[in-house]
Amino acid sequence: NAGVMQNPRHLVRRRGQEARLRCSPMKGHSHVYWYRQLPEEGLKFMVYLQKENIIDESGMPKERFSAEFPKEGPSILRIQQVVRGDSAAYFCASSPPFGEAFFGQGTRLTVV
Amino acid sequence: AQSVTQLGSHVSVSEGALVLLRCNYSSSVPPYLFWYVQYPNQGLQLLLKYTTGATLVKGINGFEAEFKKSETSFHLTKPSAHMSDAAEYFCAVSPYTGTASKLTFGTGTRLQVTL
User: Fold this and answer.
1) What does the pLDDT look like over B72-84, one tens digit per residue?
2) Burial B16-35 (b: 16+ CB within 10 A, else e)
3) Residue-wise DSSP of A18-82
4) For a FRET experiment, which of A4, A10, B26, B115 has its CA 20 to 30 Å from that of A90?
5) What are residue B84's phi and psi, to 5 degrees?
6) pLDDT tens per residue, range A50-98
7) Nearest C-alpha of chain A: how many angstroms from B95?
8) CB distance from B95 to chain A under 8 Å?
9) Cα B18 vs. chain centroid, distance in angstroms?
10) Residues A23, A104: contact at Cβ < 8 Å?
11) Nearest in space to B24 (alpha carbons), one of B100, B92, B89
12) Is B41 at the interface with chain A, CB within 8 A?
């Protein structure tokens, strides 16, 4: 059973471009969570999704950020018109309902 | 609202010495507490968690932590450090057991192990 897969592992974008981060949960996991880790900081909750539903997006910035978890395929975190302050490591975790969560290795986004 | 404070952003110990990483939390509901380890350029791995029951929790790699409600603490310990323990350690709190939903993390403690 493969772990939580995130790709790409490293992503470089110029200011103003779009960034798409993908997360494939573990087999049998229907819950996905996205966290952001800024340099020298702990992880901050962004959004919690179940298949085709956003359950809690209280940690998502109001503009430019969106997330989805379609019926088929990976969860996508999309950042439009990236700025330097978006440079961070973005971690995805997945879990079954009320089960233990497992984290992916993260996507390190660098905005130049 | 919940918060986590990890005292000491960097801790250095000699190989074979006791490891003590401090974590204090604030929670308006009975907390569920977690310790995660992050190796360089890796994701987070769960070391141990406290939900209910026994307050001394044993985890992987010889780590354990004790939940002390009166002190609002959940310090992580290991009797004898090994070089492979060098990593960053995060304490986290959640109002929900077993899930990663809305985990609130501390800022982390980087553990260095020297010969």
Assistant:
1) 999 999 999 999 9
2) eeebebbbbbebeeebbbbb
3) -EEEEEEPPTT--EEEEEEE-TTS-EEEEEEEETTEEEE-TTS-SSSEEEE--SSS-EEEEE-S-
4) B26
5) -70, -5
6) 999 999 999 999 999 999 999 999 999 999 999 999 999 999 999 888 7
7) 12
8) no
9) 15
10) yes
11) B92
12) yes
Structure tokens at B30: 């009975």
- Given A41, A101, A105, which is nearest B100 (Cβ)? A101
Token readout for B5 is 């404070």
* Range with the poorest average pLDDT among A35-49, B48-62, B97-111: B97-111
What is the token pair recorded at A46? 């962004």
The answer to whether the Cβ–Cβ distance between B99 and A98 falls below 8 Å is: yes
Give the chain A residue nearest B108 (alpha carbons): A42
Distance, in Å, from the CA atom of B42 to the CA atom of B35, rounded to the nearest integer, reads 16
Judged by DSSP in three states, B94 sits in strand
Residues in chain A: 112
Distance from CA of B49 to the nearest CA of A (A): 10
Contact A100 B46 (CB under 8 A): yes
Closest CA to A3 of B43, B37, B83: B43
